[in-house]
Amino acid sequence: MTGALVAHAFASAGIATVLLEADLVARGSTAASSALLLQEPDLELGQLRDRYGVRASRRIWRVSHESVRQLIALLKRLGIRCDLVKRAAVYYATDADATERLRREFRVRAEAGFQADWLDAGELRRMTGIAGRGALGYGGNGMTFGFLAARLLLERWQGVHSPDHALFAFDRLRRQP
How many angstroms separate the CA atoms of 174 and 177, rounded? Predict the structure, then answer.
């Protein structure tokens, strides 16, 4: 997916683009992934704040949120039919310590202006069927068939752009003596 998106961005900007793929296109981590398009980075906002400070952590989160919105919009605008759907995400806790950690994260997000909902045990059970003590939920995420999205994006890229743009697949580069 990364190669397809970079190739598309460069070609759309008028930059002659060649994409080299060491294996079958979209068969590596793209095919193996869950294809969840989560707005948040791998670390919680509170963890990023502790590591980088308030301003940088909020910027990381804003950029991450905007990236997912832009990717969803790009797939829609290009008519890439890849089973794209919007999804909410829920982080839940099953013990007191984890519940308190999630509550702190919920407050950090609220203070920073990021939308999230706190779900008590009853709401969590009704919405998801999960028996937990509480959860942090938020919308705006997406889910897609990543392999199909990458393949169709590459087909669109090859079909729309001039012959300066090419896709090459190879097993390995060998140095010639």
Answer: 9
